[in-house]
Design a protein that fits this description.
mainly alpha
């Protein structure tokens, strides 16, 4: 029941975000969106799809590197197929894809699914660090956009009605942050035996162990290369996608970086980023002075469609071929 509720919650959340992104679009704006999409450099989505596919392949190589300390050396195709089928499942049910890709690989290779869970934790921990780096770079390179927006919100929050800095608000914020840290530490320490608290504690512990376990990776240089390469491919595919629309072509690599940062949050919020990704990208375009309800919406749904298409198409192809591939492999052996 909990799994069903979680699935319905995230699907409902995605539908809500999708509704938010289109609820204020009238007939005139729909025409603007259609015109923007029809005038787009549609041929650019060929390299976008290729770069996305290459990023998934690089991710499968990185995962394979993480298995080496465990003594596992699966075939690259099986690892790639497991990654893509995992993404395919995650598009419908959050986090279930991680279980599926481990069990799928265990089915076709001499590996234990439970031992692969540690490698998943390492991957997620590294990706969290990479996403934080993307946000920092966005603030450094596009500070006039994101920085001004955050500064404006902070000024409103930390200043009083006269426009002067409010030390009371600063003290309350600092005290609240410190109290929050103390409360979280106390709850994790005192109520760690409760299932819900224990799960949170295990997640935090897993991330820490995941990061520290990188020292056991044999080919650290290659692991680092693929980690950076994956996010460079994400950035390039996003930037090229932005360039496809004439209205957003001037945003360049800086716009691609901020879109990658904001869009990644959308991909985390809902299954496959449905609803959340287009909405957040549209709001970001509003900060660049573009019409968020037309150009922003067109760009958000365009980028999301490209990412979803490559996951669905490649995931289904891998699902169809993996059994035949391994049957032929075992017959040849």
């Amino acid at each position: 029941m909990l799994t069903i509720f979680r699935y319905l919650f995230f699907v409902g959340l995605g539908a809500f975000f999708a509704w938010l992104s289109v609820k204020d679009i009238n007939a005139e704006r729909w025409e603007h969106i259609k015109t923007s999409l029809s005038q787009a450099r549609q041929w650019l989505f060929i390299p976008v799809l290729f770069l996305l596919l290459l990023s998934h392949y690089s991710r499968s190589i990185r995962w394979k590197i993480l298995m080496e300390p465990l003594g596992y050396h699966p075939t690259t195709f099986n690892v790639f197929a497991a990654v893509m089928v995992g993404y395919l499942v995650n598009s419908g049910v959050p986090r279930l894809g991680e279980v599926v890709k481990c069990t799928m690989l265990a089915r076709y290779e001499k590996v234990r699914a439970d031992k692969l869970v540690g490698t998943i934790v390492v991957e997620r921990a590294v990706d969290v660090i990479c996403l934080l780096c993307v946000f920092v770079l966005s603030l450094l390179l596009e500070g006039n956009i994101i920085g001004d927006y955050m500064r404006e919100k902070l000024v409103v929050f930390f200043h009083d009605k006269s426009g002067s800095l409010s030390f009371t608000k600063l003290s309350v914020a600092a005290g609240g942050l410190l109290a929050g840290i103390i409360i979280v530490y106390f709850i994790l320490k005192r109520f760690g035996h409760i299932d819900f608290v224990a799960k949170i504690k295990n997640v935090l512990t897993g991330i820490w162990h995941g990061l520290t376990s990188i020292r056991y990776v044999k080919r650290k240089g290659l692991f680092l290369f693929h980690t950076i390469f994956i996010w460079i491919l994400y950035l390039l595919s996003t930037t090229i996608g932005i360039y496809a629309l004439k209205e957003t072509a001037q945003l360049g690599i800086g716009g691609g970086l901020t879109t990658l940062a904001v869009g990644s949050v959308g991909m985390i919020l809902t299954p496959g980023g449905i609803g959340a990704y287009p909405l957040l990208v549209a709001e970001l375009m509003g900060l660049y002075g573009l019409d968020s309800s037309t150009v922003g919406t067109a760009l958000g749904w365009l980028l999301w469609t490209a990412q979803t298409f490559i996951v669905l198409a490649t995931g289904l192809v891998c699902l169809a071929l993996v059994t035949k591939h391994n049957r032929n492999r075992y017959q040849a052996a």
